[in-house]
Design goal:
The structure is a homodimer of 306-residue chains.
Chain A (H helix, E strand, L loop, with lengths): L1 H16 L3 E2 L5 E3 H7 L1 H5 L3 E3 L5 E4 L4 H10 L8 E10 L11 E10 L5 H16 L6 E6 L2 H8 L4 H12 L3 H9 L5 H9 L4 E2 L12 H16 L6 E4 L12 E6 L6 E7 L13 E7 H14 L1
Parallel strand pairs in A: 1-5, 7-9
Antiparallel strand pairs in A: 2-4, 3-4, 5-6, 6-12, 7-10, 8-9, 10-11, 11-12
Helix pairs in contact in A: 1-5, 5-10, 7-8
């Protein structure tokens, strides 16, 4: 607990220094709020009832409650709005699966700053926060969560065939993805691109000569990279064009943070330009959430391995 | 949030300096655990289910989860065990009652130190923490939660008549208490004592010439007072012999903290020598829980009024 408290204080220090004000939202949200943000977010959680029979859910995510907060409580605050949080979130897991039901998240939400500037600010503060927290070997996988879907639309793949492809991609099941791509009625070049794209991983060269339908997303990723280079943190970025985050509200760049000292992501985030509008105040936004316990484990493992 | 964070840091500073290590327990407890601690604690909470159909409850209190923790996880740690926590707790309230469903508690549990030394340590650290947090006018009402029940037993009041009397006392309904005392088949002197005791409030003089059945409790309160005087905080104590705390696990001294700047208690605690044993490791213990938001309001009100 002492180490967790110190770790949070260091992240909080870097982020509040950068102008992010701390917010807190109730642990229990109306399920309808979570559902409006993302159907999966609502389904994942523990549910209970208030004395009027309304369904309450333990928040499974902080971004949706903050989107609601910005629309309701911050309705007249001029953007950009910079918010940070340190809160527990909850998910149903199988008993004895070794997964925690409750996890401590620390994160940022940057509201009202579009890509690429907003993307770069959130990514840079994620990396700088982790450096302040004592991590030295962390890397950030950067992609675009809307890329594959946009490519399928451009190639006029029928809607009914898109969903299973995107689900296979979200599970990183490249075997099933390959089988399904083979069955599509598209040109050999398109089929090649659909199979190749999720495997594109590496430095700036993977953005190389973008095929036409991908040019917009690639240009944004390139611009984000340049802004990160200016802040001196671009060397930690690995492009990963097959990256898709689990929650469905991402509309642009997405990222995950890894540490080679441990075998799991310690957090991630992305751009969600349509989420806040679902609660009444359309504003572009992006954010990050770190799993504080996982960051702590990564920090301990880095120390142990040196 | 900035002020709440600073307030918690100051309390945490004083308490960790005094040797209290921070603990955290899951937000969701098995309802059976809460029930074993106190039937009311289990009933007050929001409930949900895990995937095996076990009933889970949002903790309505931190003391019972910590009692479980000490019996299970600290089974081989030599007492005294000094623990502190800063956690949210939950209770069902009527919609629009103005009562929060969720409240942030900060507190201490001192395990393995009997009365009066343990009582005095917890009370002194409560008062010292609040001074460090910026309060200057707070007072502490000190009584004994088992006093009235013990007196009823000594006077051989039948069990069936005791419960309604204790409930009236817990509600501070001295009118109903008086009516019920009148009906008891006891001596005039006993009747007088039963009516007078809950109104005894003030300085050391209320401990005056204790009637025989109360001598033990009075001696303890006097000893606690002397220990507090040695630490220079006794001037904040007001004896209140009608004080009974809501939860049923208290076995000795109980206290509540007030601030004249606001019209509510900001926290309280007491001795619970039988609670930890219900989870398998009999140890004397006492503790305090402060409502951090209420302490914050009291702090702001004190500033406003000066």
């Amino acid at each position: 607990m002492r180490e967790l408290r110190a770790l949070q204080a260091r992240l909080h220090g870097v982020w509040s220094e950068a102008g992010y004000g701390e917010v807190w939202t109730p642990t229990l949200e109306y399920e309808e709020v979570l559902r409006r943000g993302d159907a999966r977010a609502a389904g994942a959680g523990f549910r209970t009832f208030d004395d009027h029979g309304n369904v309450l859910a333990l928040r499974s995510d902080m971004t949706i409650p903050i989107a609601r907060l910005v629309s309701n409580r911050y309705a007249h605050v001029k953007p950009p709005i910079r918010l940070t949080y340190f809160s527990h979130a909850y998910r149903m897991v199988k008993v004895r699966s070794g997964q925690p039901r409750e996890f401590l998240q620390g994160g940022l939400e940057l509201i009202g700053v579009p890509a690429p500037e907003g993307d770069a600010e959130v990514i840079a503060l994620t990396l700088e926060g982790l450096i302040a927290a004592g991590l030295g070997r962390h890397r950030l996988g950067l992609g675009d969560g809307a890329l594959y879907g946009r490519l399928l639309a451009e190639l006029e793949v029928p809607e009914a065939q898109r969903e299973p492809l995107l689900e296979a991609l979200a599970r990183r099941d490249l075997v099933e993805l390959g089988v399904r791509v083979e069955r599509l009625n598209v040109s050999p070049a398109a089929r090649d691109l659909l199979e190749r794209l999720p495997r594109l991983r590496g430095g700036r060269e993977v953005l190389g000569q973008p095929d036409a339908p991908l040019a917009g997303a690639m240009d944004n990723l390139r611009a984000v990279y340049e802004l990160l280079a200016e802040r001196g943190v671009a060397d930690r970025v690995i492009f990963d064009l097959g990256l898709v985050r689990e929650l469905g509200y991402y509309t642009g760049m997405v990222f995950e943070v890894y540490d080679p000292a441990v075998g799991f992501a310690v957090g991630g985030g992305g751009r969600y330009d349509e989420l806040i509008g679902r609660f009444g105040r359309p504003l572009p936004a992006c954010g990050v959430g770190l799993d504080i316990h996982r960051v702590h484990v990564a920090q301990l493992e880095e120390e142990r391995q040196t």
